[in-house]
Design a protein that fits this description.
Radius of gyration: 23 Å
Largest sheet: 6 strands, mixed
Number of helices: 22
Shape: globular
CATH architecture of the largest domain: 3-Layer(aba) Sandwich
Length: 544
């Protein structure tokens, strides 16, 4: 059993991140921890794996101090912080090598781990060529190669597309049948359904414990957990109607078949609330700018040298990509991991030059300073001594005076709900969710006419995610052209005006939000799982 017994931990000079916390994970068990950003979830994961030592209390794995045990493996939220080699198979082999295994045993473990993670085809790739989701799966494979008795997953799904998340649930099932205990930190609604136990963390303390079904019928516990987004509201409606959520995850149509009419009405109301968003004009966009279209890619091709498998050759990364977002509109760009979303973002922002085709803003070639780009990994944008200085930097670089830049930074921080107590803190000392919001604030403070936001809600709890989503709509209402790249397709359906789906570097589909909602098969064709709200609508026999 993996046991945390009255464990506390505080970072130097700060209040307790985890305080007097106790939990147990049995062999073959599955415990999920949820809570708002900054509640101590990642600290808990680090304590459970022995990466941090508690200031009080004890962490044991099968009655042995976890720091002296090789039985617990941790997969962190940021995969890039865990790489030790540039080649995928070498990185996965690192753990078994450190266990002193012979070459044959190492090769066997590496192959088994890559197969279980579903990435055997990537074994000879350079990790720097991989998407964020693919990198996360490499780190997962590295943990699996250790053959731990307990696996700690810290927001692993935040980087994964919907199909990969479903595959991960299969991996968890396989591991549990082998007797591996799972401790998972997540903010994603569908990821906690099926767990044996859910623990809600708030300000470092466990404030609620129970089953997933029990959580969703307890509105107060859901609010404490930060589960307030559209999927959470839908699950709460389903649970209140007596639908077994673990069954619904497998066969939603069967689970909804016995619903009473009044329950269907309540669920339909929740469904409409998750898909409908009030849209208001185009704000301060000038008539000239409006006529010139906004931000667009036109027939973009991009190649890179690929020497990883069959000698040197040019691999096509983007193939004839054309997409456009008008001023005052939000475009949702989605697709499986490795489909070219982030690369498209870099081309749109003028940070990568296409081999052919163009990136235009208001009818002119894009310059790097024209577009506000929020990177997928927020830590790549944070560097200053304080949060406030970091957020003000972009505005200063765009020519704002010191006073104006500070004012714009303060306004952006407030719009993103970043507490004033964090403004003087180092941005490098923030939680993952806090760092993401600070990085976004730095982009908003620049006040560009176009934004490209790469996974802006990844790792955020429901409340923080809803604030970011609402702000995105506000930016469009103010007249900006906004592109959102996200695996969380469902939470953006109520905000996006248009959609574009990529697969293997090509546009599979593009069109209006209404057209996307009316054609669920489009998601499957792009290699994505149909969002929960759309699946519920299908199960109820309704059309949006």
């Amino acid at each position: 059993m993996l046991s945390l017994d009255h464990v506390s931990y505080a970072y130097p000079g700060l209040a307790y991140a985890v305080e007097d916390l106790s939990l147990c994970v049995s062999q073959g068990g599955w415990v999920v921890v949820v809570g708002p950003s900054g509640s101590g979830k990642s600290t808990l994961a680090a304590l459970a794996s022995g990466s941090l030592s508690p200031v009080s209390g004890q962490v044991t794995a099968d009655d042995r101090d976890v720091r002296d045990s090789c039985e617990v493996a941790l997969v962190r939220q940021d995969p890039s912080s865990q790489f030790v080699s540039s080649l995928v198979e070498d990185d996965v082999a690192f753990g078994p090598r450190n266990l002193g295994l012979d070459a044959d045993a190492i090769r066997t473990r590496v192959r088994e781990a890559l197969e279980l993670a579903g990435i055997l085809s990537l074994s000879h790739k350079d990790v720097n060529e991989l998407s964020g989701g693919q990198r996360q799966l490499v780190v997962l494979a590295g943990a699996l190669a250790l053959r731990p008795r307990y696996l700690v997953l810290d927001e692993v799904c935040s980087q994964l597309d919907s199909a990969a998340r479903e595959a991960l649930r299969g991996v968890i099932g396989v591991l549990r049948r082998r007797g591996v205990g799972i401790l998972e930190v997540t903010h994603l609604v569908e990821e906690l359904i099926g767990a044996e136990e859910v623990i809600v963390l708030s300000a470092g303390r466990a404030v609620w414990e129970g089953t997933p079904q029990g959580l969703f019928v307890n509105s107060g516990a859901c609010r404490l957990a930060g589960l307030v987004g559209p999927d959470a509201r839908l699950c709460a409606s389903l649970a209140a109607a007596g639908v077994d959520l673990s069954v619904a995850l497998i066969d939603l149509e069967a689970a909804c078949a016995t619903l009473r009419d009044k329950d269907k009405v309540a669920i339909w109301d929740a469904l409409k609330g998750s898909l409908d968003c009030k849209r208001t004009g185009l704000g301060a966009v000038s008539p000239t700018e409006r006529m010139q279209g906004g931000l667009e890619l036109d027939s973009v091709f991009l190649y890179r040298e690929d020497a990883s498998v069959y000698g040197v050759g040019a691999a096509c990364v983007l193939a004839d990509i054309s997409l456009a977002v008008a001023f005052g509109h939000v475009l949702l760009l989605a697709g499986p991991s490795g489909s070219g979303k982030t690369t498209s973002a870099l081309v749109m922002a003028g940070l990568i030059e296409a081999d052919s085709g163009t990136s235009m803003l208001a009818g002119r070639p894009v310059r790097p300073s024209d577009v506000g780009l929020a990177f997928q990994r927020p830590e790549e944008q944070l560097f200053a001594n304080t949060v406030l200085d970091d957020v003000a930097f972009g505005a200063l670089a765009r020519g704002a005076g010191a006073k104006a830049a500070r004012s714009q930074a303060q306004e952006a921080l407030e719009r993103l709900g970043i507490e004033r107590t964090l403004w003087d803190r180092s941005p490098l000392a923030l939680s993952g969710g806090e760092a993401r919001r600070v990085a976004l604030a730095g982009i908003v403070a620049m006040r560009p006419s176009a934004y490209v936001l790469d996974e802006p809600t990844a790792g955020l709890d429901g409340r923080a995610a809803r604030r970011v989503i609402a702000l995105t709509r506000e930016l469009a209402t103010d007249g900006a052209a906004v592109v959102v790249i996200s695996h969380e397709v469902g939470e953006w359906l109520g905000v996006a005006d248009d959609g574009c789906l990529l697969r293997e570097g090509r546009v599979i589909w593009s069109g209006s939000r209404a057209e996307l909602l009316a054609s669920p098969g489009t998601f499957r064709r792009a290699g994505l799982k149909v969002p929960l709200a759309v699946r519920v609508g299908e199960a109820l026999g309704e059309r949006h």
